[in-house]
Amino acid sequence: MPDDQPLPAPLLDRLAALLGPRGLLTDPADLEPHLADWRALYRGRTPCVVRPGSVAELAEAVRLCAAAGTPLVPQGGNTSMVGGATPDEGGRQVVVSLARLNRIRDIDPLDMTMTAEAGLVLKAAQDAAAGAGCLFPLSLGAEGTATVGGVLSTNAGGNTTVRYGNARDLMLGLEVVLPDGQVWNGLRRLRKDNTGYALRHLFVGAEGTLGFITAAVLRLFPRARESEVGFCAVRDEEAALALFRRFRDRDEGAVRAFEYMSGEGVGFYAKHIEGGNVPLPGHAHYVLVDLASSRPPEGGNTGLRALLEAVLEEAMEAGEVLDAAIGESEAQRAALWRIREEHPEAQKREGASVKNDVSVPVSKTPELIRRSSEACARLIPGIRPVPFGHLGDGNIHMNLEQPVGMDGAAFLARSHDIMETVNEVVRDLGGSFSAEHGIGRLKTDMMADWRGGAELDLMQRIKAAVDPQGLMNPGKVLP
């Protein structure tokens, strides 16, 4: 069927009979929320949105579409930063929303596992774990919208990767609907299972190009009984890294998050976010350190508070930390975290920005920030670097804001040049051009250059073997 042909009527009728009015959307107003990505980089068309109410319904819908040669685009919370869940402009790709598959099938506090369906919102998974006296640690800015299936399909990172790892590290087993409609049940709660290829890892990070994740066994952890948050003004990027090393050397297990922010970004927060108070204004570099322990606090001066104060005192004496504020209550700790969490929104309100989600070895993060900022300033005089993010795991969002007075559209027209300028530094430092956001549609053209040869060839052979018709999320990940 030509790409510009709509869905064949017999297929639409069969899907309608299978799914019912709740499970098949065709009204343009109902389709609208599913057509554009969160960053508004892409806008596509679709003849319908499939919303299965069960795994069996999804499997049958996939079989019907496979028989008709109809491509499918999986969609969770639609929070992709790289257009990974957006249909193309041809109008033939069917969007498959897993929003109705949102049950928690099981929580076992002794095994420390949760079996959750793909459409469960990440925040709901966190809350359910807390209700069972446990912790599901994956945390990111979109956690009120992003879903379990989405974060696994993209191998999401987030704020606590330094301690708990990415989504892949929090998954023990999967249930997947394959491109031919078969259902693979790999929902095993085992910590050890050495029985051939670890198939579950094929689907984590594949961005829906190999099948639909419908449920997962997730790892839980003991909940934190004590936490401390410090917001620090540091001398420079090197001092930020030195501070991380001090905390890591003293008690690596206590560090739940370690986030870097530039003075420019913190200034945007104070300028644009309502109630955006900054306790230590006027500095060029900041760090937020979050410590947590499952041990109950003892006495007035708890173990984590003593650790935080001791390390900050050492760093101040060494000239690495210039000033620091410590959250004295849950509300104050949340307010300090808000400075970091609202960075994307503050940048958006300031004007046009080009976003680079990159990673380098942790030891190279100061060099990444400094060299990328200098190179972009040479490329576009007046450009405003706004680096921030997960210094503790080497993932810096090396974002660049338009110069004051420059037209936003003209600035965005230089996006490719800006990204290439940053990527030259990243490559030289042995890093990756996509740390936690994935490839989606935005970065497919980079794959041949960065992952060419045997690596890309192997990916393409896996894709051809699992999805020989190429119907699963076409145009994503692979060039």
From TrEMBL:
Flavoprotein keyword on record: yes
GO MF assignments: catalytic activity; FAD binding
One Pfam match: FAD_binding_4
Cofactor (UniProt): FAD
Keyword list, A-Z: FAD, Flavoprotein
Metal-binding keyword on record: no
Protein name: FAD-binding oxidoreductase
Organism per entry: Dankookia rubra
